[in-house]
Design a protein that fits this description.
It comes from Chanos chanos (Milkfish). The chain is 41% helix and 11% strand. The chain is built from 13 helices and nine strands. The strands form two sheets. It has a seven-stranded parallel sheet with strand order 7-6-5-4-3-8-9, sandwiched between helices. The longest helix is centred in the first third of the chain and has 25 residues. It is globular and about 55 Å long.
């Protein structure tokens, strides 16, 4: 009787084994380095960096083939005519059909002048505090920032003042400006910190974010703002997500920062990344806040920030982009080393 039970259970075990193997294929198990191991690795590398034009050209080619950032990073009248179905990249089974009502909100074609030369992508990590990277950031030809970060005077030595493109997540519109349902003045005033920049909004990523994004568009347009609202193309965001998942990033969704780095790698001749450090200690092994302006942690499990960092660190070591972590040295300080 016992042998009969075992015999009958074999098909069940075989099915379970197949399911486990499929799960491991989709979500491979591996150990990320500890915070201390990351710090030791970065300190060993030091400030040494050498540009690798072959690597830069390769990643531009790969991102062009998968995602076409030059033409597709924003929703335009050219790539999204009336009647086109925009499938939300962050939600299944939700879509927006471009209509006579929404079509006028889109720009005619991609507005970025090609090619962009030296680009700075500025994250918001606490490692930027006391970094003195503001001058380096402002010397870039094109500066991209994430999620409407504060640029008040007490931060500018570390994060700079110039902005050419800044993302505005609808969740920020909800939390900081009450979805623009009652007043728009505070929002319009706060946006002046970013000058005549492009405001890049994922209006068609998740359905709850569409209306706040459109209200932000109207608020800036009605105030005669010199800023241009660009709506992120959900096809571009979806394809970029697939690109990095195939390289080992398994979060539910990429961080805004990695989306911007992907855009920069596809459009810029040289990319330098600042403020990307998702770890609890800095290079001095002292605690570091999550952001340079606060220590509010993100929801756990949504982004895979350490995995994203490891991908960017690999690109740094290969010379495809440059990561600035810790203090930005002046030329005189660099010469002393």
């Amino acid at each position: 009787m016992m042998s009969l039970r075992c015999h009958r259970s074999k098909p069940l075990w075989a099915v379970l084994c197949v399911l486990v193997l499929c799960w491991l294929y989709i979500f491979p198990v591996y150990r990320l380095p500890s915070d201390k191991e990351i710090v030791d690795e970065v300190l060993r590398q030091g400030q040494v960096w050498s540009k690798n034009q072959t690597g830069i050209d390769l990643y531009r080619k790969l991102l062009t083939e998968c995602c076409d950032p030059k033409r597709m990073f924003a929703v335009t009248k050219e790539n999204s005519p009336i009647g086109k179905v925009l499938w939300y990249d962050g939600e299944f089974y939700h879509y927006h059909i471009v209509s006579n009502e929404t079509y006028p909100f889109f720009i005619q074609e991609t507005p970025l002048q090609q090619p962009l030369k030296k680009c700075a992508v500025v994250g918001n990590a606490g490692v930027l505090k006391s970094s003195s990277c503001g001058r380096d950031i402002d010397e870039a030809d094109f500066v991209m920032r994430c999620n409407l970060p504060p640029l008040s005077k007490k931060y500018t030595d570390d994060v700079g003042t110039r902005t050419h493109l800044v993302t505005a997540n609808p969740s920020i519109i909800e939390k900081s400006f009450q979805n623009l349902l009652w007043s728009r003045r505070a929002f319009v005033e706060s946006m002046k910190a970013y000058g005549s920049s492009f405001i890049y909004m994922p209006a068609f990523s998740m359905k709850p974010g569409t209306d706040p994004s459109l209200r932000a568009y109207h608020a800036l347009a009605d105030s005669s703002s010199n800023q241009t609202v660009l709506f992120a193309n959900p096809d571009f965001l979806k394809n970029v997500g697939r690109f990095w998942k195939g390289r080992g990033v398994h979060g539910k969704r990429l961080s805004t920062g990695l989306f911007l780095v992907s855009l920069a790698l596809g459009l810029c001749e040289e990319v330098t990344v600042y403020g990307f450090w998702p770890f609890s200690v800095g290079l001095d092994e002292q605690p570091v806040s999550h952001h340079y302006y606060d220590n509010i942690l993100p929801s756990s499990g949504f982004h895979a920030m350490p995995e994203e960092f490891m991908q960017l660190w690999h690109l740094h070591k290969s010379g495809t982009l440059r990561m600035r972590i810790g203090r930005c040295m002046s030329e005189a300080e660099g010469a002393k080393e």
